[in-house]
Write a structure and sequence with these properties.
about 230 residues, seven-stranded mixed beta sheet, six-stranded mixed beta sheet, 4 helices
């Protein structure tokens, strides 16, 4: 797999015959192989996860299909499938499953070419100290855990997981719970809202010690990883 970190929560994953693009809204896109079909996923309509510019990809790539959360309400392509939470469906040779986000939209689980790839979107343990009441934080915790518990113990080859510095000392909660409750081989932090260096900070923290070798450090936009 060739993985490119584009910006914020956007990654592309290039496999032997398939390219997946997740949650693009800005940044420099790789030069995608035009002999491979491109599948564009958008987990929800927030401005940092979706932009209508994705529909311009059809002008430069010969074979594009869009899989969008149904809260987005916009398309400029006939090759668009809108999806809701807790769905299972096929698109060509992709087996796709969605989970309900703890914020808006969905998380994606994609099985393709003998790989299982998870992109969280905004499905995360959102704990906002001083902003939310204890009851609101507990509700968010329960909603997140309820979603992840549906895939408890699942084998995942590649996961993209939020690691948001705005949560202060609670930034690690969702990432940690996911890693401890799934059999994930490789995990990329995302959704930093600040320097990418948080991925390194987390990797050497005590929280991540049981699975630190599975975490990939993200340092800059456009970084390419060959796995």
């Amino acid at each position: 797999m060739k993985i490119t970190y584009i910006h914020h929560s956007s990654f592309s994953v290039e496999l032997d015959n398939t390219i997946l693009l997740f949650d693009y809204f800005k940044g420099d896109l790789p030069s995608f192989d035009k002999n491979k079909k491109l599948y564009v996923f958008s987990s929800h309509s927030h401005h940092d996860h979706f932009d209508k510019s994705i529909f311009n990809l059809e002008k430069i790539h010969p074979n594009v299909e869009y899989i969008l959360s149904n809260d987005i309400k916009i398309t400029k392509s006939q090759n668009t499938k809108f999806v809701g939470a807790n769905e299972r469906f096929l698109v060509d040779n992709l087996e796709i499953r969605t989970l309900e986000s703890s914020d808006l939209g969905v998380a994606f689980i994609v099985k393709v070419e003998n790989k299982t790839i998870y992109h969280a979107g905004d499905l995360n343990w959102w704990h906002w100290e001083g902003e939310n009441t204890p009851e609101e934080n507990k509700f968010a915790e329960n909603k997140f855990k309820s979603a992840i518990d549906k895939i408890n113990g699942e084998n995942i080859d590649l996961a993209f997981l939020p690691l948001d510095s705005r949560q202060g000392n609670h930034y690690h909660l969702g990432f940690d719970y996911f890693m401890r409750n799934t059999n994930t081989k490789i995990a990329f932090p995302m959704h930093f809202f600040g320097p990418c260096s948080l991925s390194k900070v987390f990797k050497i923290s005590e929280y991540a010690s049981p699975y630190k070798d599975k975490i990939i450090e993200v340092n800059k936009d456009g970084q390419i990883f060959e796995l």
